Amino acid sequence: MASKKKKSRDLYRIKKLREAERELKNIGYSYIAGVDEVGRGPLAGPVVACACILPDKFSIAKINDSKKLTVEERERIYLKLIYNENVIYSVSEVSHEIIDLINIHQASLLAMKKAIEALKTKHEFLLFDGRSNPVTDTPFQAIVGGDRICISICAASIIAEVHRDKLMDEYHKKYPIYGFNKHKGYGTFKHKKALIENGPCLIHRKSFEPIKSLFN
């Protein structure tokens, strides 16, 4: 009985997640892309964005804001998304060099713009998480907390985060002393300690504190 109630609650939650797309489809939009970016806060590595168009009545158990999922849950949902032939998505990266050159806000907008432009199917409407969005001629809506309440943004956030995590795992092989496989570039105590002891490596964001004050 408890299992049935839990399943019923999850189905209701996912139904609520589809409301934004359902309302837009009711007024004539067919290709609606959710857009999100990850990696604004880390001291190292790129910012990554994803644009994702989901098929009608799309559902995956436990799909949610990527930050509310375990690593295993994110990976499971990520694989179901990228291997579903009816899910249309694109991922873009903006490097640490560009972040240092134009600042993280502009780099995040650039990553989203690149992801949108890389979609292989036309998009008629865009749904963004938060208040910021790149300049676009496509009709759009910015939704505060969109990665928690809009299913296509949820999907984009999961794809972007797992993609970035995999990149940081690869960087760990090249720069193992920093522990990128654990913290993914965020400013944990161990990461900052490794920075002080070893200095920054090539993928650290030189414009970010404490790197800027310590080493520039």
Structure description:
The chain has helices at 2-17, 19-26, 71-82, 96-102, 104-117, 146-149, 151-174, 180-183, 189-198, 211-215; strands spanning 32-38, 47-53, 88-94, 125-129, 140-143. With 216 residues, the chain is α/β, with parallel strands linked by helices. It has a single domain (16-215), classed as Ribonuclease H-like superfamily/Ribonuclease H (Nucleotidyltransferase, domain 5), CATH 3.30.420.10. A five-stranded mixed β-sheet has the order 3-2-1-4-5, with helices on both faces. The model has no long low-confidence stretch (mean pLDDT 92).
In short:
The protein is of the alpha/beta class and 216 residues long.
Low-confidence stretches: none
Return the CATH architecture. Answer: 2-Layer Sandwich
Q: Globular, elongated, flat, extended or rod-shaped: what is the shape?
A: globular
CATH structural class = Alpha Beta
First CA to last CA: what distance?
A: 61 Å
- Structural class of the helix and strand makeup? alpha/beta
Beta fraction: 5-15%
